Fold this sequence. Notes:
Shape: globular
Structural class: alpha/beta
Main location: cytoplasm
Number of domains: 3
CATH topology of the largest domain: Adenylosuccinate Synthetase, Chain A, domain 3
CATH class of the largest domain: Alpha Beta
Family: Belongs to the adenylosuccinate synthetase family.
Cofactor: Mg(2+)
Subcellular location: Cytoplasm
Mean pLDDT: 93
Strand order of the largest sheet: 9-7-5-2-10-1-11-15-19-20
Catalytic activity: IMP + L-aspartate + GTP = N(6)-(1,2-dicarboxyethyl)-AMP + GDP + phosphate + 2 H(+)
Amino acid sequence: MANVVVVGSQWGDEGKGKIVDWLSEQADVIVRFQGGHNAGHTLVIDGVSYKLSLLPSGVAREGKLSVIGNGVVLDPHALAEEVERLSKQGVVVTPESLRVAENATLILSLHRELDALRENSNTGTRIGTTKRGIGPAYEDKVGRRAIRLMDLKNLATLPAKIDRLLTHHNALRRGLGQDEVSAQAIYDELASVADKVLPYMDKVWYLLDDLRRQGKRILFEGAQGALLDIDHGTYPFVTSSNTVAGQAAAGSGLGPNSINYVLGITKAYTTRVGEGPFPTELKDEIGEFLGTRGHEFGTVTGRRRRCGWFDAVLVRQTVCTSGITGIALTKLDVLDGLDEIKICIGYELDGERIDYLPASQGAQERVKPIYESLPGWKESTEGARTWADLPAQAIKYVRHVEELIGAPVALLSTSPERDDTILVQNPFQD
């Protein structure tokens, strides 16, 4: 049996929710391994929509174990609120269905405030963050001053840890002209939520190793997309964690030999939310068409996504950096009705043709896309469940994408409905 990692191959928002939900039905365990509640998945099960920001997609299915790994930064209040929100929809989350890594770093109110102060500042670079404290929490993690979930178990030891944290944060706040935060306020913030989140705490690395040895199928669920990776993305317009597939091992406590298949979720065009370079962005009627037809609004923020043509250069690069085995191509139906469809096959940078996205921020802003044009199709692909249901030109488009990115299509999604999927290869049966 294969253990599968699901990653977004672009800038996120590729339609992972539907694919992860489809895979989670076959999995025994679903693991979140990075990010925080800045991500968003919308699941539709039996006509009911569930909007998840932090919880793994498996929580909405009975008999599945959901796990939040150590690579996630955890807002304990957001976790408690999401559990409560799901309970109102009839989904009861218990310690039998959810486990959270004891060594997960906590997001506090001061992280959210610092995130907003920086993003709203008129100086420096606007990143386009969700202002949910993700970046500052990761900073404290690598700065070795973070408060972790296990610290809530012994509140008597919290004051010393809070003092160490505030030595750093209050100096920052003074520099930004903000009032200092009292140690008592942070203590009360944590103490008030401890009983709500501690029942889910576990040694996740130990638990997952045991389940793996039992032969359980594990699905590793990434957030955002590989081009938002802190190392391999469009830095500095990235998230604050590693989003590539290799993080599934480090962010859950398992070794890389636990991963058997990497599925890259890939939109049939390209979108991006927030700031940063976007070589194929369309600011014309075609971009408007894609955004309207594709309902391109963020699950968490509601922000309108920027839209553009499919960029094979970027996805080919992600296939390399994440070791993608096969892709799930989503939203093909959004392209229905276009007379012409373009694909970016290379860039021009300062008069030279290149076949990769350069790491330099300045170079990323200067690259110009080189396009191939393919004829569109007038027939509808929406709801197609077999290759025979697709127009010939749509099949040619899919095959050309495979050739350009160097990875096969394992699944093809033709609508938000989970059954409107053409299965070529089941990742769990690799």
